[in-house]
Amino acid sequence: MMSAEERLFSVSKSQRLDKAVAANVRPQLSRTAAQRLIELGEITVDGARQDSSYMLKPGEVVRVTLPPPEPKAPQPENIPLDILYEDSDVIAINKPAGMVVHPGVGNKRGTLVSAVLHLVPEMEGVGDEERPGVVHRLDKETSGVVLVAKTEAALRVLQLQFKSRTINKTYLAVCVGDVFPQRGVIDKPIARDPAHRQRMAVLPGGKESITEYMVSDVFKRVGEGAYSLVRAHPRTGRTHQLRVHFASIGFPIVGDGLYGATKHDALSKRLAPRHLLHASELRFRLPSTDAEMRLTAPMPADFTSVLAELVAGD
Q1: What pTM was computed for the model?
Q2: Which residue among 18, 89, 139, 256 is the active-site one?
Q3: CA-based torsion, 104, 108, 111, 114: positive or negative
Q4: Is 139 an active-site residue?
Q5: Minimal CB count within 10 Å: which of 74, 194, 215, 247?
Q6: Where does the chain hold its CATH 3.30.2350.10 domain(s)?
């Protein structure tokens, strides 16, 4: 494990402590990061703690203790998992809503990959160092089947299946409104929203994005409008694809505030940020035997609870 690093410096002219630290300890520290370390007592002036606004004088020695950098590779964590299938090549997990697939900004711990590494330590280093074994992803608040490769060979085979679109995915979604037409294909290109970097959007020149869907049931609640249970089959795998596509035809997924569901819908406001989208089925071919495999993930309790509520109020 790497140890903390210390930096010493002084200035030639008077300036704020936090500004001086950010200027002299680059690129490791921003001014905001410097302020956090000052509050923690990791930055001193001539051995004494000072506030961020302290005016540093020429000749005073600033000591900065930098915390060791966090490892890029995810660390194993003992987190319970709902394992749907496992062999020498792959492990399939029924991911709960709220769990991130692999570490990222603001989500370093508690990820699915860290949990799998605890069970399968030999998976470390398979594929991308920062997301070992990851074949595909689900959004944090999307539940359902996630497939993880245990070996480099299995990873390559599965990635090829996704690229060639021979893997079939089925999702269940509850949408706001009476989805019409009840069976259809949404063929709209998707790209990063230039006005909102956390969102994707239907944009000319975006990547080809195709979703087939069929309405399974419609629930009409007195005074609240209608909701539709939809079975969707994405033929491409774009970021937020189903969420963007259903919002684009006027029927956002319940609970999805990012794509407009919470603006006027009381049920969505109550459930957000959990959007009612569940990866219920995955069909693929096993890497070693080429046998066809069909994995299903039962609907989670929150999903079935909402459906029961909709049925009761229908």
Answers
A1: 0.79
A2: 139
A3: positive
A4: yes
A5: 194
A6: 71-164, 167-314
